[in-house]
Amino acid sequence: MTHHHDHAGGNPDLLPVRAVEPAPRHPLDPLTGAEIDRAREILVAAGLLTETVRVPMLLPDEYDRAELAAWTPGDEIDRRVDVTLMDAATGEVTEAIVSLTRGEVVATREHRAGEAPYGQPQYLFEEYERAAQIVKDSPEWQAAMTRRGLADRMELAFCGPLAPGFVGRENEVGRRVIRSLTFLRDSEGDSPWAHPVEGLIVHIDLVTNEVIGIEDEGDVPVPAGSGMYTPDATGPARETLKPIEITQPEGPSFHVDGHHVQWENWSLRVDFNAREGLVLHDVRFDDRPVLARASVPEMVVPYGDTSNTRFWISYFDAGEYLLGKNANHLELGCDCLGVIRYFDGYVADDHGHAVKIPNVVCMHEEDYGVLWKHTEPGPIGSHVRRSRRLVVSYFSTIGNYDYGFFWYFYLDGSIQVEAKATGIVFVGAGIPGSENRHAPEIAPGVFAPVHQHLFSARLDVAIDGTDNRLVEIDAARIPMGEDNPFGNAFTWTATTLRTEQEAQRIADTSVARVWEVQSASRTNYIDKPTAYHLIPEPTALLMADPASSVAARAAFATKHLWATAYDRDERWPAGRYPNAHQGGAGLPAYTADDRSIDGEDIVLWHTFGLTHIPRPEDWPIMPVDYAGFWFKPYGFSDVNPAMNLPESSQAHAVRAGSGAADGGCGQGDACTCGH
Ligand code: CO
């Protein structure tokens, strides 16, 4: 959430573009480095990108459906860039659409960040450095540190910059504000997150570059325990784990052509941008459309603490900080195992220059245990087929937290989406042994506020085409009586959600609620609409009060499901600029007209996530916590589409136990599966 960059220039994973990359061949290919640099040249030539102007966000401009449908291979592609420009000297914000093909700026629009409903552009990496310097240079902060007896700790202190939320203070509203919390470090190489200086909050205006307020109260001793996690801190690594090697002697089963991927029944296009990170397009099963576009374009991390230090914390990691710009360079053999195909990503730096994030998206196959199995006495015997999944993933580090976004494609037509939350829990300080009903003590004097990680997935569904229908399916009890004489009977209800307002729904595991997306025109061989089910996992919704600021700003997180009529410009669950926005943007605005979604081109938005009451085991680094959902075929295929999988042969399988060395299936006793 807060950002910590070790050197000027920001994300150490961002490298200058060096190699010459291939030109895009398909409209849905990600922006190349050359294209980002070309966009910059065009903006400079147009007089829009001057000395003081910065580039908070640069994305591919979205194509509309008709434009995409009209395109055929070999056609010229009108490649366009959607950029937000901010004059750092004045705070003025301009949005521009640049046509790379035509070499010109084709549209501009002013964004008035200083007027209601406000909304500041995404933070620049250079602003984190600048904010820290402003704090350290300020007499107010120096006086506070001195008063706390920390004068000799100032040089090594880390000033963590955080988005301010929207708290309505007169001297903040409409201004480009960042807050700074202070953490101590024992040395240059120390992790700062374990040593919070409680109750010291500095408010900074990033346009005037001045401290506009400071709070210094409730000081308690700074926790001194180590938060380090490097091998020299954790001690010698255990030596009991034997290696596990994943080998695919004949290579992977996927085929990649540019950014198009074919794997068994699945095909899809892999895309990446600075805001959403991984984006998948044109996801098909058996060459039939399932998803036109899919991503996790927003998330919010609201804190449930009343203290002045934290009540305003509600990070929008995509909309305020940009998940893609902060994405990791993935290391071969560490994040993913097996035969791995990486994709590079390109984003714009603060000045609009292209930077390459090598190996930003990882794709590989994983064995996933049993897919189907039955043992029948007699001649049929035992049959088992193994499950395998195609994994497409990336990781983003936003300050202390790390988020992985994993899309899994299974042989039976299922899709699973999983967010992985790890990294360092955000903590404050307190008197050891004291009770805080908003923040459990997870290490001596280290108190971790309760919070949530609520993600919004945007699924531009296309079940057998763009004409789709949304139906809520509940299991339904039947009162004992004439219709249910023995009391055992139950049934299900199917309720069509016909408009955007009707489609704002809450998950209910007590009735096994799922949302069915049907084709409005195609049927299967039992004459029912072909369909997929969105299967939510139990997730608390936003815990903040409906009247709170964060409930207005993160309205998407107050429902598990939203659905909208497709509009290429509606891509941001909390709006384009959630930073310091007063609320109401994104899904509440998109659905205000209550458009029909019955048999239309529809988009689903699904909230999923974690409600985190931290524990000692989350310290000093939190084991991965998981949240996600499934998207499963329901009558999309006529039978189990994985019936024809081969029986697996396990030439290398070894039976553990008595004498591991000779515990294999043995000569003449191959470990065949089945029968
Ligand atoms: Co957490």
Structure characteristics:
675 residues, mainly beta, Nuclear Transport Factor 2, Chain: A, Beta-galactosidase, Chain A, domain 5, eleven-stranded antiparallel sheet, 7 helices, 33 strands, disordered N terminus, disordered C terminus, binds cobalt (II) ion
Account of the 3D structure:
- The protein is mainly beta and 675 residues long.
- It is built from seven helices and 33 strands.
- The strands form six sheets. Strands 1, 17, 18, 19, 20, 21, 26, 27, 28, 29 and 33 form an eleven-stranded antiparallel beta sheet that branches. Strands 11, 12, 13, 14, 15, 16, 25, 30 and 32 form a nine-stranded antiparallel beta sheet that branches.
- The longest helix has 13 residues, at 33-45.
- The protein binds cobalt (II) ion.
- Residues 421, 425, 451, 453, 612 line the site of cobalt (II) ion.
- Cobalt (II) ion (CO) binds at residues 421, 425, 451, 453, 612.
- Main structural class: mainly beta
Helix content: under 10%
Termini distance? 53 Å
Which geometry do the CA atoms define?
Answer: globular
Name the poorly predicted regions: 1-13, 15-19, 658-675
Mean pLDDT: 93
Would you identify the CATH architecture of the largest domain? Distorted Sandwich
Kindly provide the name of the CATH class of the largest domain: Mainly Beta
Number of helices: 7
What is the CATH homologous superfamily assignment of the largest domain?
Answer: Copper amine oxidase, catalytic domain
Fraction of residues in β-strands: 35-45%
Question: Which compounds are bound in this model?
Answer: cobalt (II) ion
Please tell me the total number of domains.
3
Remind me, CATH topology of the largest domain? Answer: Beta-galactosidase, Chain A, domain 5
What is the number of strand segments? 33
Largest sheet: 11 strands, antiparallel
The Rg value, from CA coordinates, equals 27 Å
